[in-house]
Amino acid sequence: MIPAGRAHLHVAAVTHPGQRGKSNEDRFAVSAHRLSRSDPTPSLLAIVADGVGGHRAGEVAAEMAVETISRLVAESDAAQPVRILSQALARTSQLIFEQSHRDLAQVGMGTTAACAWIIGDRLYSATAGDSRLYLLRNGALQRLTTDHTWVQEALDHGVLSPEQARDHPNAHVIRRYLGSKHPLHADLRLRLRQGESDAQAEANQGMRLLPGDRLLLCSDGLTDLVEDAEILAALSADNGSEEALNGLVNLANARGGHDNITILALEMPPKPIQSRLRLSRRRVLSCLVGGAILLAVLLLAAGVSWILLRDGGLLGSTSTPQAQPTSLAPTTGTPIIPAEASATPLPPASPTPSVPASATLATATPPAATYTPWPTHTRGP
Questions:
Q1: Over the stretch 87-121, which tens digit does the pLDDT of each residue have?
Q2: What pTM, to 2 d.p., does this model score?
Q3: Domains in the chain and their CATH numbers?
């Protein structure tokens, strides 16, 4: 893909270390591209990663995640977005695991990852861990992803109630993350409705985003302390996206701010995005240059035609031409024929008929153009 100068979605992002004095191990990245020189369809990849591990190893893992995933996606042809995302997360997980065994201070490091890839107006996603992806549409907030935690599995199996899960000691035990010794299988489910099967949720990949839709990616530093209804209220308020995100950060910090907080918001523009643009910039430029050349040729031809018509006497003065006398006698004393040569006398010139003064030269009037209308009920050429 080709780097683009600007994103085709509106982007706002905030990150905060929280209130516990710990270093910020969250990382996020946004990258904008065009698919190719011949296909200028816009592409935007957004990633939020929440690192885990002591001695600053968590931030190393999170940094590796956003950089490596962004690079692998940018180097792809975007032909199969779901496969590309899945392989990018799996490869990044392997690299983080290998790096953790090169340095004893980084043993056991890992990171979550929530990825949203928008190609034109189509959404593709892949996640691992408890960083989330939300969709705000028509005043409703839908969580598209599933947490990979012990508590979420307990909720899914009915072992815990939502009230019990909120303050459970295993709330932050992650079941799936980048950097594990086991091969990573990224979660490719996009849950648009309650009760969807896993197959139905995966079939939602490539869903069309509508004008005004908002996507929200965030780390658990927000969702542990702020309810979904409060997120909806903040995003629905009549203020700028960044102001709304700062309000959510302040709310989480007011309730303890025990973890890093990162929020990334993407908004579709009011006008729909065409998935495939018909003309590339090069073709548009070629059309403009070709049109300019054709116009120049037409103007040149018109100028040449005007000059020819003018010099040929078809344009200009309409006065009656004066008859010139037909005489072969020289106007000076220099003879045309040498004196010693015998000149053959010429026959006398016939008198030139005079034109009466009252006569006027008739000016030919071209016949008026007539237009023959198309017959009724007859198709034109």
A1: 999 999 999 999 999 998 899 999 999 999 999 99
A2: 0.72
A3: 2-267 (3.60.40.10)
